[in-house]
Amino acid sequence: MVEESDLENLEYLDMVVKETLRLHPVAPLLIPHESTEDCTVNGFYIPKNSRVIVNVWAIGRDTESWSDPEIFFPERFVGSSIDLRGHDFQLLPFGSGRRGCPGMQLGLTIVKQVIAQLVHCFDWELPGGMLPTELDLTEEFSLVTPKAKHLLAIPSYRLNI
Ligand code: HEM
Known about the structure:
Elements: H1 11-23, E1 33-34, E2 39-41, E3 44-46, E4 51-52, H2 56-59, H3 104-121, E5 122-125, E6 154-157
Antiparallel strand pairs: 1-4, 2-3, 5-6
Keywords: Heme, Iron, Membrane, Metal-binding, Monooxygenase, Oxidoreductase
Main location: membrane
Cofactor: heme
């Protein structure tokens, strides 16, 4: 079984989670923010009390920040210092700063442990001879982004315990 203490050693899983949240952030526009004082960001003047919406979905697909951004390629994080904890502004699935997600550590632990257990304990097949390339990953646009079509996959237990 995969224990929580194993997670820090699962480097490829860490890259897969980053890449997934880059392309499919749970909250694509974060939560609306408001400027508490006049400021200038990247040459744009933002007056006090402005409603600011950060499009992390678009940032995750920005060609100035990512090469081949539409391709799911976890290996892009090999040797990269880019993390998703709010310090690297090209990858902000949990937002950043004092209104960033306070549940980040819990969320990451649960997501990683569930995926690790599912991959470790089961072999997976798609139904009806479907190929992985035929999977429809279209999202429904809203405050959060569920898959438009449910994922159907068939597990078979592979551990003899
Ligand atoms: C993978 C899991 C999760 C993701 C991707 C996620 C993502 C986010 C994002 C993007 C925001 C908005 C940040 C911003 O606008 O700058 C947020 C806010 C928030 N999240 Fe999460 N979250 C996750 C799990 C959790 C969990 C497990 C909890 C609580 C146990 C939680 C509690 C909150 C709260 C209370 C806020 C509002 C913070 C504020 O407005 O000050 N989140 N989350």
